[in-house]
């Protein structure tokens, strides 16, 4: 926590970060431990998450977020996954997958959720996606983060954000199409 506090320069922000730590560190540790299955690595993930939170504290606090726990869990989950991947790379010589950067033609997810009823249904469908995709779409659609901010919060490259968002949108569009097809057959 001390390292995270080093990124905060005023008393109010330090206080906000301390409250987030007090209220959510335990839940964050449990999430990280489930992924990493190692106490020390889980602690490292929580520390890394709080460094990311501290770096983006103004953005996090300015969103008027009434669910800071969910945001903290998203950030620590991604920090734990990053640690897991780094460790996996250390112990294996597997060739990394090349991520594709192809734009998907057709309506964007943002266009589809314009009306309130569709928004509610999309929210339900996002919960059916893998946690990594659901987290990205949540940050993009509900917290209104741009790609660069998501990159900083999740500690992944801008290209990875774009690729994962593309894949998440594609999965969501597939679920929407399946749902519309089922409704059409009823």
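Sequence proposed for the structure above (186 residues):
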């Amino acid at each position: 926590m001390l390292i995270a506090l080093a990124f905060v320069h005023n008393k109010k922000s330090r206080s906000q970060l301390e409250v987030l730590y007090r209220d959510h560190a335990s839940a964050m540790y449990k999430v990280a431990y489930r992924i990493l299955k190692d106490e020390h690595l889980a602690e490292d993930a929580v520390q890394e998450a709080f460094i990311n939170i501290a770096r983006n504290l103004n953005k996090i606090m300015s969103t008027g977020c009434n669910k800071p726990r969910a945001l903290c869990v998203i950030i620590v989950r991604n920090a734990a996954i990053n640690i897991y991947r780094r460790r996996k790379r250390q112990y294996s010589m597997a060739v990394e997958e090349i991520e594709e950067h192809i734009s998907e033609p057709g309506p964007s997810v943002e266009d589809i959720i314009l009306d309130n009823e569709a928004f509610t249904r999309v929210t339900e469908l996002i919960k059916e996606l893998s946690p990594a995709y659901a987290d990205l779409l949540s940050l993009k659609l509900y917290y209104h983060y741009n790609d660069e901010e998501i990159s900083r919060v999740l500690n992944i490259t801008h290209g990875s954000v774009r690729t994962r968002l593309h894949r998440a949108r594609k999965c969501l569009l597939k679920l929407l199409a399946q749902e519309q097809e089922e409704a059409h057959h009823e």
